[in-house]
Amino acid sequence: MALSVNTVYVRLACDVGPTKIKELAYRAGISGARKLAEKNGTTAAGIGLGIYEVSVLDQATGYATFGNGGEHEATHFVKSVATIGGELVFEAQEKKDRAFSTDVAADATYAMTQVVQRGTGTRAQIPGRPTAGKTGTTQNNVDAWFCGFTPQLATAVWVGRPDRKPLVGVLGSQTGVYGGTVPAEIFSAYMTAALEGQPTENF
What whole-number distance in Å separates Cα of residue 84 and Cα of residue 163? Predict the structure, then answer.
């Protein structure tokens, strides 16, 4: 995982079964509106390579589930609403479901810390904070991702174009933008600022 040798995950998908991976992805937070399947309804082994379209929110939610020890929390955009006097008018109801075991979450988190410490995502490092994540780049550099988390916060960064043109010759890169370049740098800058003043926690 650290070096993004992703062919391993196709073999793993074949061994485990793509349908089981799809079901786990939904439990982890991928929206049920996302069709993680072919037109005939079967799920391909390439699911382990990210061949199905998911949103940035889906990615952030899924990675938060790893950071939360395998427990998925339903997303909401408004936490609470109060009057000027402080009277609580609305508060989002938290909904938690176990997506996978804490041991599975811990193993995957460890693997993803290696991506940031010594692998393809070193530019995502947050000074003084344990960080885990994964780079992602689609064919011809059309999409570049870095998705990651600390114990307190998960963030997904996508860089791409609405017209789906390759990310070549842009953002300071002549050969193409990869997940470990611009997206990882955006992740690091944002997370450093977002966590300023927060205590450092360990996985």
Answer: 44
